[in-house]
Design goal:
mainly beta, 245 residues, single chain, 2 helices, 59% strand
């Protein structure tokens, strides 16, 4: 056990911070390195309720260089029948607003995905525009902006009207906020938030650990509305694969 603990500490101290396409659940101000393929899996697991609930989000990003990446997603693969399973293709562009020597690292992040629901057999979108900057010396990064999406992203609202169950798709514009604070060379406290009441509307604080060519995140999901979604443990893992030497 002591050897395992010492080995883990050694890995943490000798690795370096690695860029990732997401903070936890919202787009980050990073993109995949040129000619690198990033694979990310996020698990949301509530195992303490009356029934165990598991949901996942899966991403693949390929860096094209010049702040551009192409993306694919597989959303809402879960243990409840995957009723809102959606496959997406899109891109993200990060633009440095000033000179590369800008100590505040002002950035504009824009992008989105076209999404196809494999169960509903329809098409939707998820788009976003974010502004991001970093505080020098502290290295604190703030990110905020807006996102528009359809039911393939934000799910459905269900309610009763005259004793009849009504289900309507969520087509929403929401606010996104992200925070990243490095604590050590390869350890950070991070969190992000979606406004509103929908499937992604939640606050997620987490710890991020950067390894050589990979990122591990563990956190906790606090939904904005407990009637819409459940609290859950968050585990996310990303690894980067260079496609050229």
């Amino acid at each position: 056990m002591r050897i395992l603990i010492l080995s883990t500490i050694f890995i943490l101290l000798t690795s370096y911070t690695f860029a990732q396409s997401l903070i936890v659940g919202i787009p980050s101000a990073d993109v995949a390195e040129k000619h690198h393929l990033e694979i990310t899996h996020e698990t949301q697991w509530n195992f303490w309720g009356q029934t165990s609930k598991w949901n996942s989000f899966n991403f693949a990003c390929f860096g094209l260089g010049n702040g551009l990446e192409i993306t694919s997603t597989l959303n809402n693969l879960d243990n409840k029948g995957s009723q809102n399973l959606a496959f997406g293709l899109g891109a993200k562009k990060v633009i440095n607003l000033f000179e590369t020597s800008d100590p505040y690292e002002h950035k504009l992040v824009i992008g989105g995905n076209a999404l196809y629901s494999t169960t509903k057999k329809n098409i939707g979108v998820w788009t976003y525009a974010l502004y991001s900057f970093r505080i020098p010396k502290l290295k604190t990064r703030f990110t905020s902006g807006f996102s528009y999406g359809n039911s393939q992203t934000f799910g459905f609202t269900t309610f009763y009207e005259n004793d009849k169950l009504i289900t309507t798709p969520n087509n929403k514009t929401v606010l996104l906020i992200g925070f990243e604070q490095p604590l050590a060379k390869n350890i950070s406290f991070i969190c992000d938030w979606y406004s509103g009441t929908h499937d992604l509307a939640s606050f997620i604080p987490a710890m991020q650990f950067d390894f050589n060519h990979s990122v591990f995140i563990v956190g906790y999901k606090f939904p904005n509305n407990a009637d819409v979604s459940d609290r859950a443990m968050i585990v996310e893992y990303m690894f980067s694969i260079p496609t050229r030497k």
